[in-house]
Amino acid sequence: MEAVVAIAIGVLAACGVFLILRARTFPVVLGLTLLSYAVNLLLFASGRLKLDAPPLIRAGATYTDPLPQALVLTAIVIGFGMTAYLLMLALRALAETGDDHVDGRLKP
Amino acid sequence: MSGTSLLLLIVATAFIGCLIPALLARFGRRMAALGAAGVMASCLALLAPLVPTVLAGETLVTAYTWLPAYGLDLSFRLDGLGLLFNLLILGIGLLVVLYAYYYLPESDHLGRFYSYLLLFMAAMLGVVLSENLLLLVVFWEITSISSFLLIAYKREYRDSRIAARMALAVTGGGGLALLAGVLLLGHIAGSFELTAVLAKGELIREHSLYAPMLILVLLGAFTKSAQFPFHFWLPNAMAAPTPVSAYLHSATMVKAGVFLLARLYPVLAGSDLWFWLVSGVGATTLVYAAYTAFHRYDFKGLLAYSTISHLGLITLLFGLDTPLSVVAGVFHIINHAIFKASLFMAAGIVDHECGTRDMRRVNGLFKFMPITATLAIVAAGSMAGVPLLNGFLSKEMFFTETVGHPVFEEMRWILPLFATVAGILAVAYSSRFIHDVFFNGDPIDLPRQPHEPPRWMRAPVEVLVVLCLLVGIFPQWSVAPLLAAAAGATLQAPVPAFELAVWHGFNLPFIMSLVALAGGITVYALRKPLFALHDRLPSIHAHIAFERLYESLKTLACRIVNWLDTKSLQRYLALFIAFVLSLGGWAWFSGPPTLAATAYQPADSAAFAALATLIVGALGATLLHRHRLTAIVFTSVVGLVVTLTFVRFSAPDLALTQLAVEVVTIVLLLLVLHYLPQTSPAEDSGLRLTRDAALAVGAGAGLGAAAFAMMTSPFETISGFYLGQSMSGGGGANVVNVILVDFRGFDTLGEITVLAMVGLAAHALLNRLVLTAPERDIDGRPWATERHPLFLSMLMQPLLPLALAVSIFILLRGHNLPGGGFVAGLVTGVALVLQYLASGIDFAQPRLPRHKAKLLALGLLLAGGTGAASWLFDRPFLTSAHGHFTLPLIGEIELASAMVFDLGVYIVVVTVVLMVLAQLGRLSRHGCPEKFGEAT
Question: How far is CA B271 from CA B275, B312, B911, in A?
Answer without folding.
Answer: 6, 20, 76
